[in-house]
Amino acid sequence: MDEYDVLVVGGTGVDTIVRVDTLPLPFQDSIGVPPIQDYVAHTGNGVALGMLTLGLRTKFIDFLGDDPQGEQILAAYARRGLDFSHLPAPAGTPRAVNLVDAEGRRLSLYDGRHPADLLMPRDFYLPFLQRARHVHLSIINHTRALWDDIERLGVSTSTDLHDWDGRNPYHLQWALRADVVFLSASALRGGADGDRHEEAMRAILTEGRARVVVATAGAEGCFVLTREELEERDGAVRHFPAVPPAPDRPVVDSNGAGDAFVCGFLTSFLAGRPVPECVLAGSVSGAFACGSAGTHTEFIDPDQLAEGCRRAADTLASPAN
């Protein structure tokens, strides 16, 4: 029996959150802001803690710096009971500065400090990989070392391409080798070339091995295309509307919403649920994350997710919607 339901590889760090009135910022010498705070964050962190909170046996592995940020991360994982193993990061723990406006929108400045030639050693990751049912790979360069062993072992995989523009070759190894691919539609819609999210989604399925591709679009919901739909419905992409926020959780911060969507979707997907149910779970989880300030400060639990899905399904099914 597999020891881990999910092995998350790569993507821990610290976010510094700066709250501002509007984005973009005006050009001036100084701007007064509310207290600036640091949070244990980044994409792998959000997926690992989110899946753990939803009851999955979760293992997280990464590089980590011997610095105050690394100490903050280790202390947080010890408090939450996350099973985390790491190697020393030669350039220290990754950081980001996120500017968040009054409507919860953000601009993330990510330092990407890991050296370009850094790869995760096989003797470190392989024992964990051999005990995993599913692997979620962050698009951190050092995770690309795992792909050949993942395919040899036949382990299912997922990844999040974030704001991929559909062209940057860096993302292709993850886009074309994962079974479940998530991405944001933000860089693929409304540009000089028009909306290209459907084109990118079809290309991922046509050229790669994915079973399903999900492009999230914030308040507009998400777009979904499966391999079966590509083959049987001539590649018709389905649109799913966003779920309304819970009455007691208005939107205050979108940091971590994409990672939360991934957690809700994958938890249902790995349980064998139909894609529309997976989308609903992802949407409810993402909306829940938007109701808390900071990055990855709250994670939806199984009871909250079940109740949120019931409420959202009733709301979306009402004649007013």
Automatic annotation (TrEMBL):
Domain of life from the UniProt record: Bacteria
Molecular function GO labels: kinase activity
One family name in Pfam for this protein: PfkB
KW rRNA-binding (keyword) present: no
Domain Carbohydrate kinase PfkB: 45-297
UniProt KW keywords: Kinase, Transferase
Name used for this protein in its record: Sugar/nucleoside kinase (Ribokinase family)
